[in-house]
């Protein structure tokens, strides 16, 4: 019995322990300490595992020109409010295809093709907070892009300010999600919902349409 207990103890402590890590993205100046460092957001995401935190330093006054794809349960934060993101090719800027993702402290201002979005949110228990999305203009100067395209459930969209886009929020069968404490203005449509109306909640949200 004693031998069995010792053997079990040795087996348990010989198993690898996977601790979450902090990955830092920067271009010129490191804004905080981390376990590893990257020059692009996507390369940090590709190296991350579920539970990791990625902190993105500001790129001076310039945005990070990337198509960001999140397929892991991670935290992705700007080190400070307003870290800039933009599309390099007119397609969507951020696409979330995972559950339990936290995403905050970014500004998205970019040219987008018609029907593309600043944030594509598809998953459950997403927390998207403190985001500014604006000036989603096509090549012809017309507002073409969607601010947030959501297919999420049990998710929170808070402190998101969207203006000068085609549609602020396009929520397609997005269930039991909350939009709160932000604004949508100078858009053709504020919030467009495809699916049951009674499963969406908007709290303290200012909305104004284009004249």
TrEMBL record:
Species the sequence originates in: Candidatus Bilamarchaeum dharawalense
Protein name: Right handed beta helix domain-containing protein
High-level lineage: Archaea, Candidatus Micrarchaeota, Candidatus Micrarchaeia, Candidatus Anstonellales, Candidatus Bilamarchaeaceae
